[in-house]
Structures are given as structure tokens and as C-alpha cells.
Amino acid sequence: GDSGDEKQDSSWNNCDFETNLCKVFPEFNLQPGWIRRNGQSGMGPPYSDPNGNESAYFLSLSSEMQSSSAALRTNVFLPTDEEHLCQIKFHYWISQVGGTFMVGLQKHSEDTVTSIWQVSGDLRNQWNVNTITINSTEKYEVIFSGMVETQRQGETVAIDDITFSEGC
């Protein structure tokens, strides 16, 4: 009656990791490898979020941890159409040498993950931002994957502020 159920939940569109509640990632608390932390954690870079806030949270994968790779998988999204493409904007951090960050797409009918964007090391230890557009004729999931070389000390991959357009 009050249209309250029609209103979109703003926490769905933006995932800033300030809380453990991030509706787009159903297994957020179960993802091995990713650590929800902030710049004050004493775990090395990054020492702040993309906005320079040392107490704001982000997800990070570090070479000091047991797992050298980790994935973050979204809920299943419905097919896109020409008027409603899915755009995903995110901030990422990769250490200078041994880090890789990838965004993949897994269509509902396929078992494999197709890489749609990837970047590796040599980014001068700073936050970067990227926007990807997804056009899929069938249901799909988006997978954010990080990988670090565990032999190198201080290698980090981090992600923050993932925003999904209404077409997702």
C-alpha cells in the first residue's frame, strides 16, 4: 500500500564493506582468503580506503595469509537488455610486483568463468578505479578474483566501493 516493497534497497547497489552486510554477495562472510579490514589494521598497505580514510573498511588479500587467491561471487543476475546494461564500478589496489586482480563472468548455462577484465602488478601501490559493462542474454554471476604471490612479503590485492547499476 505504501509502495515500500517497491523501493530499491540502496545497500544492494553499493558495497563499501563498512558492514558485513552486502546483499549482492550471498556468501560474503564465507569467502576464504578475503579479509575485511581498514588501514589501521597493521597489516601493511593499503593504509586507507580510496577516499583516504584510514578507518574505513575494504577487502584485502595478503601474501602473509595462508590463501594466495580468493574469489568473491555475486548473486545470480537476470539477463540484461539493450536499455538496461549492467555497469559495475569498483576500486582496486594491487601491489607493485606479485598481484593480479580479475573480474569474470559465469553464465548460467556454463561451468567456466570467462575473464572480462584483468590487471597485474606494477601499479605503484595506489587505488585505481574501473567500470565494466556486462551484456548477457542469460542469467549470470560476476566473480571478482585476487591472487598474490605468497613468496613475496607485503604483496596485497584489495577491493572496495563496488557499485552496481540498476541494470544488474
Automatic annotation (TrEMBL):
Transmembrane feature ranges: none
Origin: domain of life: Eukaryota
Domain MAM: 13-168
Record-level GO cellular component terms: membrane
One Pfam family from the record: MAM
CDD domains according to UniProt: MAM
PANTHER family registered for this protein in UniProt: APICAL ENDOSOMAL GLYCOPROTEIN PRECURSOR, MAM DOMAIN-CONTAINING PROTEIN
Name under which the protein is recorded: MALR1 protein
Species this chain originates from: Sinosuthora webbiana
Name of the gene this protein is made from: Malrd1_4
